[in-house]
User: What shape does this take?
Amino acid sequence: MSTELNAELSEIAEAQRMAKLGFWSWEPHTGKFSCSEEVFHLLGRDPATFQVTLQSSLECIHPDDREAVRENLRATIDKRQPHSTQARVVLGDGQFLHLWSRTQPVLGTNGEVIEVKGICQDVTARVLAEAALRESEDHYRHAIELSPQIPWTADVDGNLLEIGPRWPRLIGMTREETLGKGWSRALHPDDVDAAVASWQSAVTSGQPLDIEYRVRRRDGNHTWIRVRAAARRDSEGRVVRWYGTAEDVQAYKAAASALKESEARLAALLESTGNCVVVVDENWRVTYRNQRALNATGKPENLRLGQTLWKALTLDPDSEFRERLQAVAEIRQPAEFETFVPGLDVWFEVYVSPYGDGLSIFFRDITEVRTARDRIAHLAHHDALTGLSNRAHFLQRLDSDLDAAVRNGGSVAVVYLDLDDFKDINDTLGHAAGDALLTTVAKRLEAVVPGCVARIGGDEFAVLQTADVSETTLAELTLRMRDVLAEPVSYLGAELSCKASFGIAMYPQSDPQPAELMKNADMALYDAKNSGGNRLAFFNPAARHRLQQRVSALSCARDALERDAVFPFYQPKVSLSTGELCGFEALLRWSSPRHGVQPPGLIKEAFDDPLLSVALGKRMLQRVVADMKLWRDQGIDFSSVAINVSAQQFFRMDLATTILKSLQTAGLPASCFEIEVTETVFLEDDSGTVARSLQRLQEGGVSISLDDFGTGYASLTHLNKFPVSWLKIDQSFVKNLGVDPNATAIVKAVIGLAHALGIKVVAEGVETTEHWDILRTNSCDVAQGYLLARPMAAERVPYYVRHLVSSMELEATYDRSSASSA
Assistant: This one.
């Protein structure tokens, strides 16, 4: 009997271990506590060492759960009823075990609780499973709520069983109204038959469903939805349930329709454009081409879709066109250029821009335009009689070479010559003889002169030298020219004298201005002629030079005013952030009967003369207003024009009234006009005249610009006292950007100061892309300088505004005169 009992007890203990179920009892009056061996395992304690009591057992419970366990015991005793609770047990390794416990009171004869019996079970697996289930349900619910698709299910007969919560919000029908066949009541009347038939066909065949139709929304409007469904089958292939989604695709339909319409408009536009258009993918395969592109290739079959562009246009691997296109594809930046395509024997003007992973290429045949332009350019830069460079081309070369010499510390020389007895030949033998002599002189000079030779006018020639410039080498060159010209020229049996006089001027011995160097050479030529002719003379900058210069400058200025030969050239100002035109600065130019267009530096002394400075300022104002009116009448959006004013204009005339009345008479808004003043003007304003005039101009809508900031007696009070809208950084700082850290720091500080005061900044003398990049990086507003364009005549402004071309392109189109920066 004892053996059988032990066996049964062992089986019970094994069952408890398998079920993770423990038994315990506690006598409230005596405190006696006993438990089965499984309780020790559930508490994570060793039966051999753990002293089991009610208190020690409670200490195994997580601190946050102990009070709940105690309350369960109290309720069992007080209410004399069974109670259940669940708590966490802290195991020895720090892990948790979820323990479920149920208590049962044992009552004595007097009805008091004499013992509490309990069972406890490890429910960790169930608790974790329930938590995972809740997490899964939450995840599913949130996914359903956030998904644009509305899930639904249906039975084997196609009756709707469930539908997502977004359906009622979208349609306005309740879940109950939608289930079964109720969903069909939301269909657009024109779509009911097709939608129901498609669903019924899918239910009958068991095939997936994918259909679009319109349903009525909550607001009464209709929207397109896309409905998809697929059947779930049992192991024998029978449909047991349908699962599907409904998605509002109204936005997609509208976008697709708009895209299709846009593509149609674009295709029509590209076909009607005057340009050839080709679009290629990243592998240079043609994905689109218009009819003009097909015609331009000469072989339309080559430009078929899918064909590589290289084969279509017969472009060799080293062709310029191909290299330029590949460069755009690599840097992903638009480009515009002209290129010759040998395989087609044509010149193309090309604009190419990244498009998706490929490129869009616009081009047109400019072969005839290019030929005409080259012919015009040649005529514009060469003398028709001798074929030598003309005055304009010579001055352009001289200007460029002087710029390079100033930057690089080089030298430049001009040899000015004219024929000693040319007038006598013309007067006695006629112009035909004179032309024959001039032609022969040109050929002889070209034969011995290594540099540029030009016919300046009449019997005057000029030679430009930039290599090995010294008095010795120039004297040797001049003597060679004199010797080669000394031989008489035969003409219709007559021997024509070909003697010449030479004047030489050099930089850096002279100022680095083309007109100044020419003038010095001319003065030297005058000395040579006065010395008897047929000889050379170097320019001698004697003490009389300064006085002569002033007298000459004042004389030239008066003469130019009398001849109405004072006029503005215009240099564009361009936004550094957008690259768009912001306006122009009007720079004074004047025309010399002998030397053509001249810069203001040659009459700079006139600006210090009280009367001449006012007269020049009035003439400039008249010409600028007239030019602006003409441009405005032509529809040219020139934005604004800035003009420099001197101190004398403030003190010797009612400047504000004059400017505002001139603009009003011309029908021009004051906002298109700007005046530039230097700091010296402010310093001379003891009476407040300047301040009052500027205030009136500013109130009238004219912008005020402080010119050459930082080069004079700069005072921050000027920025605060006067209504300055723009501040111009002098080119002396700009030219050293990227070279002199101090210059960069000064420019950056000036920009920051101006912006802090609400003043915009213009940088003058921007000549390199490095200047541009530094200024743009430091948030400068506007740039002005040779990098963008040289000053241009008024008649060239409309072309520039329409095409926003660089100065080089402008010069190739027009006859460039000797403009230089003010």
Observations:
- The two ends are 128 Å apart (CA to CA).
- The chain has 30 helices and 32 strands.
- Residues 806-822 have pLDDT under 50 and may be disordered.
